[in-house]
């Protein structure tokens, strides 16, 4: 509250030419009086410091599967420069209407006309005060002068080669825009393959249209302005219960409107920008803008998949847009709220003075996470650093914003010191990401990070330190080469989304039409004038034309590392039109076109006029204080003279004003009747946590193990006994499917972790390079009587399965996945075959995993070689309930067959935690987030679900109890299971009346608010309930549980029957069975439950449902080398197969189909 007064005092004290002595005296006087006054106030109020707590949380992320389409679009002919240029000339031969009917010449017309503007007068401005927005109250911040229209002359100053390239890029924009305009005009997106209208991706705000406005204007195209004025509507936002992404809406929609205004001078865009800005303001609290916001309800939160934490990039990438909005509207509130995060940044400082900041921000405490976090200039952190520079440039490099340039310089120094690495085998420089604390580096780089070379180049244009300019530009060039090599090293000429070093190993093979590399090429060319960067960009553009072009636009390309397997996804992000094509166009244009000294581009490539291009920078600072509009040097001088005071009056005047202010504060406080208070809860809250004693762990001795697991006959599969000819025929069909999947794996990738079902590619190391598909399939091969295949697999395990390489490459393994797939597969193979080879390998593997145990849990990530362990970084280094609660069955069985109790003891230690901590609010249900450091469950900013992240914990409560023989020592597990089912029924079990469907919602805590969605993973629940009813002595409870199982089973089957492909999407929303994630990942949960339901009820309907599902898999998921995940299951014409076959398809899905059609006595 003191800032405006202090600013005014400084102005009075300084005049226009303050001496250093006056400044020091002024500062000392103000500081002493202020400190004395505040001390007195604090004593009167009995205020004492209060500890702030931070609570970690982690991502609720479903990892993206990589892979491909079987066939998506018609073949693209081989393209060369001449073909593309001819195509472009044909496309531009038609008369072109200027943007929004203002008569701007097209590029072809401009080529023959005299230029209206040159490098120094490209932007025309009219220094008149604009009409105030209805939503803007009179303020001390003066709106910028009304802007005149920017007149694009893109091909002035370019040669014929660049001109022809620009024509081709413009033609690409016309093609993308045509697909959108004809099939989805006014919607958020168009499906580039299907032509589907995707109305609400970002809130139903016409995001592609608004995001593309400035690209259309710059290229001299289109008719979008009238839609913005007449049709763009914000009143529906939030009424459907959905949130909007404040981050994405700000950079895409608000940025697009502001840029359109800056280029055209059309007040329609400014008015809509102010309207949208006002709607976003309530998302601000605690010095930040919350990322998820319901405009109608005025509720705000952080993204659930971030663990309800703020992300550095989200919080630090709004300031440019909000400053520009304040400057064009005259209302300072937007800038003040955006800049509030910069106050936090300065207060908190960088991590260990590195100049770099953790990507995680604790909303409640207002601090950055200093543990269990990471530092990266890529995804989650990227544009924060970009905006440090660009906000400073936008401000006209004024002194009051010099701290931003300092933060930027410090960050670049930190990048060079802590993140820049050289991969000698590749002769490539890259920027690693590091985990903190410990600064452990990950040798990876994502495509998003490729904005950095451009940022560094842009920063050199205004740097006054020659040595630093040389160093930054050298770093930019080295990183630029690496980013270009992401493209040039691939057979498609397109870049994967993530690579690992050394080797440029592809970790995510999708090209998502991203702009970062061409953005940097544009900056590097404009700074260095080296035409090599233009040529590199042209090669990238040709690859886009060849591989990404579709009937209705351009789509993301899957499998860029395989020309034969690459295909196009039905997704065209708005940033392809807003950024990628714009930067390609600007790269081939002259540097004087949309010049960098007059415009600054936001992170969505929307150009904003800098304040220096609107009016002189010294004028900006002055009018910001006085609220006056100064349009001439004479007026400015008059203001300066009116504000000067004789030197002899400066200090007395300042002291009098400060004394009056402080005296007023003291008088007010002295009149208050305030007595000291103490918060009794504070002492208890800050007291060290007292741990309850843990119950004694299970003890398994050699003697008991021998007694319970004496050598016995191996299991002899007789699957055809007790079934009729229909079931036999079905079993044989399912067995043939297994043979087909196994044949693809055995012939193309035997001993590797996976085979790619579309391309036949060998994927050696997905889970550690330990033959996961082979080991995971062992018991399926055995049960189906595939004796020869099983024997060959057994020989590989005996002679080739090797664990000694694990961790030597620096990689970690997923302890959870390796235990359930690899260790579980070995143990099951031993149990069925009684072959001691499998037991020996299981023991060898388990002994390697034991160091992952600490603090009563198994950590999810382990480097077997170094013994270093952690939780997944994408979980914010927290544990998930499903991960730490789904090891006990394997560990107990291993102890029982070896006589070594250590495995069971360490697995069961988490059950000690469960009993000590208890369920959330005695509901029987547990939060999905677990804090390893404190050994407690998160009690806020988390959620309860029986689906992903929580699922198998509840399953194992029942199954471990059943495995143990229902012994009294384990009765607590059955009680926990029964309590959990009661909690599901009370808090999660919901009836969607319009659908007549029962589902299990997710529950946000502590609010206890439900989210009406259910994922496919949750479809194991009907089977679990059916299994739990077997042997239940309470008939009422058994009936209730079986009734729940039946109703939930109907819902899960409806996932399949309601889709035209007969396959289930991965995530549904109620009411309406709305598809939220349209991929079928070959998951087993529904057929698993059908198997249990049939075996418990003997109702043949469950077999019929399962058979219909199997036929759909055969029809839509079968490929040359196996079976692949199917995308877009809700659209027959749009469905295609991804190049991904998880090992669980052979281990679970096909096994459960086979057992469903067999007699209950089989296994």
From TrEMBL:
Disulphide bonds in the chain: 450-483
Pathway entry: Protein modification; protein glycosylation
Keywords of this entry: Calcium, Disulfide bond, Glycosidase, Hydrolase, Metal-binding, Signal
One Gene Ontology MF term: mannosyl-oligosaccharide 1,2-alpha-mannosidase activity
Name of the protein this chain belongs to: alpha-1,2-Mannosidase
Enzyme Commission (EC) number: 3.2.1.-
Record's GO cellular component terms: endoplasmic reticulum; Golgi membrane
Short name of any one Pfam family annotated for the protein: Glyco_hydro_47
Sites where the protein binds Ca(2+): 603
Top-level taxon: Eukaryota
Cofactor(s) in the UniProt record: Ca(2+)
């Amino acid at each position: 509250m003191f800032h405006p007064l202090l600013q005014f005092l400084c102005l009075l004290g300084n005049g226009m030419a303050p001496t250093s002595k006056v400044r020091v005296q002024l500062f000392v006087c103000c500081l002493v009086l202020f400190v004395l006054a505040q001390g007195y106030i604090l004593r009167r109020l009995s205020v004492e410091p209060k500890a702030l707590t931070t609570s970690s949380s982690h991502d609720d992320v479903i990892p993206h599967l990589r892979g491909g389409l079987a066939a998506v679009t018609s073949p693209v002919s081989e393209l060369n420069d001449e073909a593309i240029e001819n195509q472009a000339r044909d496309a531009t031969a038609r008369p072109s209407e200027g943007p929004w009917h203002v008569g701007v010449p097209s590029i072809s017309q401009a080529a023959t006309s005299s230029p209206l503007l040159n490098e120094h007068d490209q932007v025309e401005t009219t220094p008149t005060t604009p009409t105030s927005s209805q939503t803007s109250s009179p303020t001390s911040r003066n709106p910028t002068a009304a802007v005149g229209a920017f007149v694009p002359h893109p091909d002035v100053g370019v040669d014929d080669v660049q001109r022809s390239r620009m024509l081709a890029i413009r033609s690409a924009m016309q093609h993308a825009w045509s697909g959108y305009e004809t099939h989805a005009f006014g919607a958020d997106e168009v499906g580039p393959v299907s032509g589907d209208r995707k109305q609400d991706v970002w809130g139903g705000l016409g995001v592609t249209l608004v995001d593309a406005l400035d690209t259309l204007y710059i290229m001299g195209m289109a008719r979008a302005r009238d839609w913005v004025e007449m049709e763009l509507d914000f009143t529906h936002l939030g009424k459907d219960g959905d949130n909007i992404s404040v981050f994405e809406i700000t950079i895409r929609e608000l940025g697009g409107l502001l840029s359109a205004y800056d280029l055209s001078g059309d007040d329609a865009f400014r008015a809509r920008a102010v309207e949208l800005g006002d709607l976003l303001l309530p998302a601000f609290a605690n010095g930040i803008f919350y990322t998820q916001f319901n405009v109608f309800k005025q509720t705000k939160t952080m993204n659930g998949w971030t663990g309800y934490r703020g992300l550095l990039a989200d919080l630090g990438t709004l300031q440019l847009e909000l400053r520009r909005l304040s400057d064009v509207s005259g209302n300072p509130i937007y800038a003040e709220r955006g800049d509030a995060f910069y106050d936090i940044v300065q207060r908190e400082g960088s991590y260990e003075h590195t100049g770099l900041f953790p990507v995680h921000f604790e909303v409640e405490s207002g601090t950055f996470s200093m543990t269990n976090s990471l530092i990266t200039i890529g995804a989650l952190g990227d544009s924060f650093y970009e905006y440090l520079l660009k906000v400073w440039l936008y401000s006209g490099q004024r002194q009051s914003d010099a701290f931003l340039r300092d933060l930027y310089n410090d960050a670049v120094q930190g990048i060079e010191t802590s993140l820049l690495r050289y991969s000698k085998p590749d002769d490539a420089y890259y920027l690693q990401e590091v985990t903190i604390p410990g600064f452990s580096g990950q040798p990876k780089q994502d495509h998003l990070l490729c904005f950095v070379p451009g940022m560094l180049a842009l920063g050199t244009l205004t740097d006054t330190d020659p040595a630093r300019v040389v160093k930054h530009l050298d770093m930019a060039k080295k990183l630029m080469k690496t980013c270009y090599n992401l493209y040039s090293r691939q057979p498609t000429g397109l870049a994967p989304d993530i690579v690992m070093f050394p080797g440029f190993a592809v970790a995510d093979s999708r090209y998502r039409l991203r702009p970062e590399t061409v953005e940097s090429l544009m900056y590097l060319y404009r700074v260095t004038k080296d035409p090599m960067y233009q040529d590199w960009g042209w090669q990238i553009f040709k690859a886009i034309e060849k591989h990404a072009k579709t009937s209705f636009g351009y789509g993301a390309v899957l499998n860029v590392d395989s020309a034969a397997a690459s295909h196009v996804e039905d997704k065209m992000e708005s940033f392809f039109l807003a950024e990628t094509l714009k930067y390609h166009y600007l790269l081939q244009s002259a540097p004087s076109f949309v010049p960098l000294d007059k415009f600054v581009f936001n992170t969505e490539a929307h150009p904003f006029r800098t304040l220096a291009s609107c009016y002189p920078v010294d004028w900006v600072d002055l009018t910001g204080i006085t609220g006056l509009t100064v349009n001439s040097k004479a007026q400015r001088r008059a203001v300066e003279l009116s504000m000067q005071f004789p030197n002899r009056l400066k200090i007395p005047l300042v002291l009098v004003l400060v004394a009056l202010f402080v005296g007023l504060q003291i008088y007010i406080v002295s009149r208050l009747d305030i007595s000291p208070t103490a918060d009794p809860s504070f002492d208890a809250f800050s007291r060290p946590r007292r741990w309850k004693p843990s119950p004694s762990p299970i003890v398994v001795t050699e003697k008991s193990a021998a007694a319970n697991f004496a050598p016995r006959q191996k299991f002899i599969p007789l699957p055809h006994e007790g079934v009729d000819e229909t079931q036999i025929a079905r079993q044989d069909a399912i067995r043939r499917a297994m043979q087909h999947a196994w044949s693809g794996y055995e012939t193309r990738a035997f001993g590797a972790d996976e085979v790619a079902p579309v391309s036949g590619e060998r994927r050696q190391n997905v889970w550690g390079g330990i033959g996961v598909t082979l080991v995971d399939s062992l018991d399926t091969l055995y049960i189906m009587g595939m004796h020869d295949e099983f024997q060959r697999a057994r020989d590989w395990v005996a002679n080739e399965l090797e664990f000694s390489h694990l961790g030597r490459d620096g990689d970690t393994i997923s302890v959870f996945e390796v235990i359930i797939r690899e260790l579980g597969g070995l143990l099951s193979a031993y149990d069925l075959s009684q072959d001691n080879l499998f037991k020996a390998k299981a023991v060898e593997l388990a002994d390697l995993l034991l160091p992952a145990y600490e603090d009563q849990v198994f950590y999810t990530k382990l480097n077997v070689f170094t013994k270093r362990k952690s939780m997944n970084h994408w979980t914010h280094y927290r544990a998930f309930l499903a991960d730490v609660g789904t090891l006990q069955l394997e560990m107990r069985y291993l102890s029982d067959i070896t006589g070594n109790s250590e495995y069971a003891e360490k697995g069961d230690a988490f059950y000690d935690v469960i009993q000590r901590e208890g369920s959330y609010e005695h509901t029987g249900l547990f939060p999905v987030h677990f804090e390893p450091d404190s050994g407690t469950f998160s009690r806020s900013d988390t959620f309860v679900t029986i689906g992903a992240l929580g699922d198998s914990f509840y399953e194992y409560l029942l199954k471990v109890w059943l495995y143990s023989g229902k012994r009294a020592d384990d009765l607590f597990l059955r009680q926990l299971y029964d309590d959990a089912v009661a909690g599901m029924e009370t808090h999660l079990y919901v009836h969607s009346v319009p659908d007549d469907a029962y589902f299990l919602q997710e529950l946000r805590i502590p609010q206890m608010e439900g989210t009406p969605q259910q994922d496919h993973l949750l479809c194991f629940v009907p089977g679990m309930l059916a299994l739990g009813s077997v042997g239940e002595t309470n008939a009422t409870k058994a009936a209730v549980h079986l009734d729940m199982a039946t109703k939930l089973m109907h819902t899960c089957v409806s996932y399949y029957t309601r889709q035209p492909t007969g396959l289930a999407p991965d995530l549904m929303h109620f009411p309406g069975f709305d598809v939220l994630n349209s991929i079928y990942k070959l998951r087993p949960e529904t057929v698993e439950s059908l198997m249990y339901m049939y075996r418990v009820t003997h109702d043949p309907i469950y077999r019929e449902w399962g058979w219909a599902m199997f036929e759909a898999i055969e029809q839509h998921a079968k490929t040359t080398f196996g079976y692949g995940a199917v995308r877009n299951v809700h659209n027959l014409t749009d469905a295609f197969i991804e190049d991904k076959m998880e090992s669980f398809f052979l281990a679970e899905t096909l096994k459960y189909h086979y057992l469903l059609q067999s007699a209950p006595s089989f296994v």
